[in-house]
Amino acid sequence: MQLPVEALIYVVIFIAVFFLVEGIYLVAFGKSISLNSKVNRRLDMLDKGAGREEVLEQLRKEMQQHLKTQSIPLYSLLADKAQKAAIAFTPRQLIMVMVLLSGFAFVGLSIGTATDMALRVALSVFIGVGGVYTWVNRKAKKRMALMEEQLPDAVELMVRSLRVGNPFVSSVQIVANEVQDPLGTEFGIIADECAYGRDVGEALKDMAERLGMQDLRFLSVAVGIQQQSGGNLAEILAGLAKVIRARFRLFRRVKAITAEAQWSGKFLSGFPVFCLLFILVTDPNYYDDVIDHPLFIPLCFFVGIMLTLNLIVMRVLTNIKV
Q: Domain range holding 163?
């Protein structure tokens, strides 16, 4: 029975595709763009001799390029995630990477398996697109989590700057210079836009909508109200920083409370698959007596659907809105 070996090959090829995307990205754009880097990318570009206007143009182009291509049928699945992850690949490059990795998967499946041509093509496209989507989704989640963690400290830094007499735009510039990526570069873009005449409240609102962060919306609303009605912005932002930090702690607490249920759902869905692979590896002929039964394949699909539904239901039950 060839099923266990082929199943392992599918998994290995998918993992290889995932790491290949990361390798291509780092080769194309350098390690400085990695989320693990301590470098503020905007400041790094300025230190290398690029002009402020040139850096702003490059960063804004990267920010807007993905949302402008949501009309592309295949790419629309990735546009929002790629935007939040600040993927430096252009939409065309990302689609080319999908095609390249699908071809890589097809070659691997052709060499390692005896699957039919139509199934190989379908699996290759699924692995290529799925690998890129998984990679982009992981980048987006990691970047957004870092920004949510950095935001309270950034707001408190602005409060301290305002209390010593600096204007709000200068406070934003201080955050851009002192805070690490990803939030440092985002605020650096706002500071540069304001230096060229854009309203800071409007710039903050656009960033909040682009990233989809509720705490950033609070910040943009607070700044907008203060611009229209006046008041002590330092005190307003100090209170906002406390609210954001309290919300962050509450999110972490909810995440900790629901972690057991989330991992229970993953375990309950993954354990049968692990047992199946273990049985097939230790005894490849275990299912030979029933594999030709007309109900075997339909029931396999039924089990797969039920395991997937288990993940979805457990995720819905643990997705607590705060």
A: 148-245
